[in-house]
Amino acid sequence: MDIGQQTPSSAAGDAGDATAPDALDDELAFLLGMAFQLLISEFQRRLGEVGYGDLRPVHGFVFQALTPHGATATEVSQRLGITKQATGQLLDQLERLGYVRREPHPLRGRRRLVVLTERGRNHMATAGAVLRQLESEWAAHIGAERMAHLRRALADLISANTPEGTPPPFRPVW
Q: What global pTM score does this model have?
């Protein structure tokens, strides 16, 4: 559904629908969550259409943790705020699917560096293009200036609420 497109229930003013006239009365967390869910759902749908239906949203967060030069499993775990066991399972799955590979760490030792394969890098390029297209569509709906203000406001809130300018782990919640 396009942002702002009304369903029959929202036209009647369903209080649970973020497009309802009283949506501004909803909790900010709810509005942010609904916007995020709409974005991710459409993002996943479009990625599936171009051949990446084998990936889930959490995989994209792993890819982000690996860019640009790879990371250890422990670093991925810390960046995502998930357990090392869960990280290992995700990395094993992505390795089986051909999106990542484990290499010896350049500093030696027992550590392994997890890097994107060519397939993983191609996915990142495609995913980036899809996200830019979605953001462009959202900006077309609310206006480029409002989109720029939204982006700046969210960046400012994140910066103001993180110690030493380090963003919190991006913990997938689904």
A: 0.77
Question: Is 39 strand, coil or helix?
Answer: helix
Per DSSP, the residues of 24-36 read GGS-HHHHHHHHH
Closest CA to 18 of 132, 57, 29: 29
pLDDT at 173: 58
Give me the CATH topology for the region 55-159: Arc Repressor Mutant, subunit A (1.10.10)
- Residue-wise pLDDT tens digits, 88-141: 999 999 999 999 999 998 887 788 999 999 999 999 999 999 999 999 999 999
User: How many residues would you count in the chain?
Assistant: 174
Give the domain ranges of the chain: 55-159
- Ramachandran quadrant class, 103 (left: phi over 0; alpha: psi -120 to 50; beta: rest): beta
Determine how many CB atoms are found less than 10 A away from the CB of residue 16.
Answer: 11
E-assigned strand segments in the chain? 100-104, 112-116
Average pLDDT over residues 53-75: 93
